[in-house]
Structures are given as structure tokens and as C-alpha cells.
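User: My instructor asked us to take a sequence, write out its structure as C-alpha cells, and then describe one feature of it. I'm not sure where to start. Here is the sequence I was given:
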Amino acid sequence: MAKKSRPRVKQLVDRLESGKLSMRNFVRQVTRAGVPKSGISGMMGKSKAAPSLTKNLVRTGVVVKIEEIKKSGGTLVHGTIKPEAVSFAQTVRSGPWTLESKATALEVSSKTGVETVPKDGIIEVKKSQAIVLKNAGARPIRYVARQPLWEPDAYVYGYKGQKIAGSEMWFELKTSDTDKKTRPMYNVISSGGSGNFVLATVEPGTETLRCYYTDSDYVVTGLTGTGTITIQAKSAKRIKAIARGRDVKIAKKEIFSIANDGSDSLVVEIRSVTSRYWSPDSSYFDVGKSKFAPGSEIYFEFVIPT
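Assistant: Let's start with the prediction itself. The C-alpha cells for your sequence are:
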């Protein structure tokens, strides 16, 4: 499969780099091409021209932290909707769910119009019912949702007439639901059913949260743009350049961050050397003052690919 995928993946990276392919369509078509567990590295060849990516990732202003409810097998979502949040629809196909908030500025709408919020603040959402959450006030609104276990194919989002699969959504990591700093954005992409790996878009002047992994060594490969990776191993610090086709190996438990010092977006692939699947429980992120929290405790902002 890798040999058949190689020409196709190289063409897709070229089109992404030149701005002829949106990030959403890049993720969709790379998945269809059947990328092996080894990832995109070694399939893309040399750059044809300076990068000129399209700017088509929209931060929504909706920040969540997701917890797995082990007894019921569901998901507990702690959400915050900022006053300037972008309105978008969300649909859960795998079952009904509930949303709880007593904020009077919260507006919940569906195809039938604006939903009436009960006095207890608990809204019952039917299976496959699309709803839109809107903050009509001047302060952040917090809510709690109890949903089925998150599976990308079971969640669909809607934005300006477009239907977006859960697997196509991006997210920006946050240290808290009040974190206002602009950070890089991530997407978890499938390796043809044999595992997954992570794509990250690092915009000029931004840097990822410092992080480390406990399950495996990792490799960061540049797809487009240029930047640097800072690796902290014990008392020594190393700074590595990253660019298209260049691999940087990160040993297990080494702390690293990726920064963009170029003029256009840096896109990288992050993949495990031995583990099939990226797991939030084996990923740790610096949430401030060198305190590292597991991925399951990290907040993230929904980012819509258009």
C-alpha cells in the first residue's frame, strides 16, 4: 500500500504547500490514500516552491475538557463558550445526550427553532439532532454535557452550510478555559485503520506547549514551512531545525516544543515509533511553571476546517 500511496501523497503535499488544497481536503484525501503507520515521512519528496498555504482553519471560541466516564462508557464534557464564539452545529449520531447550564445568556437552537431551556437547566438532545450553542451575553458561559464515548465517525459538525466529520476537526491546546494565547492547532489522522498520527499547524510566531510522551520514542517530520524544535533532555538542551522532509527524533520522556520562526505556516507530522495509536494518557503537557498534566486533563478549543 505504501508504494501505491507514495505518488499520491507527494502530490497532495505539493498542493497543500502551494495553497491549491485546503487543510480540510488534505486530511480527507491523505486518509483516503491509505497512509501506512510509518506516516507521511519518506513519501513527499522535495519542495517545489516556497510555501503559500491557504488560511482556512477557524478558531471557534468554544473550549472543552473531556473526561471518560468509565462506569457508563460515556464522555463528560466541561465546556466554555466565549462571548465572541463562532456559531456551529454539532450532531451526535451514536445516541442521545444531555447538556446542563443555568446561564441565562445561553441560546440553544435546532431545526425547529430556539429550544426552551428547562428551569433545572438540563437540555435533552436526541440522537442525530443537530443543535447550535450561542453565547448571547458578554461573559463566558460554562456548561456540562454527558455524551456517548467520543468516536470521530459518530460526531458531525456544521458550519456555513458545510458538514464536517469529527475526524476532520482540528483543535488548539489550552492550559485552561481562560487561556487567551494563540497556539498551534492539531488534527489526529488515521493510518488506514492500522493506527493514527498527529498533524500540527504551527503559525508564524507561535510555539506548541512543551510536552513529552511516555509510551514510545516519537518522530517529528516537516511537511511544509520551516521552524525549530527545542528538546530538553536532563540538563542538556538541543535546538533542531525542521523543514519539509526533515525528521527529528524525540526520545521517550524527552521534553520538546515546536516553534515557527518562518513567514508562513509550518505543518509537521508527529508519530510514535512503536505505538499504533496516539493516546492522551501517555501525553503530558506543560500547563505553567513546568507543571505537566496528562492529555486527558488538557483543555482544547474547537477549530473548524473550511
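For the description part of your assignment, you could build on this observation: The chain has two helices and 24 strands. Try explaining in your own words what that tells you about the chain.
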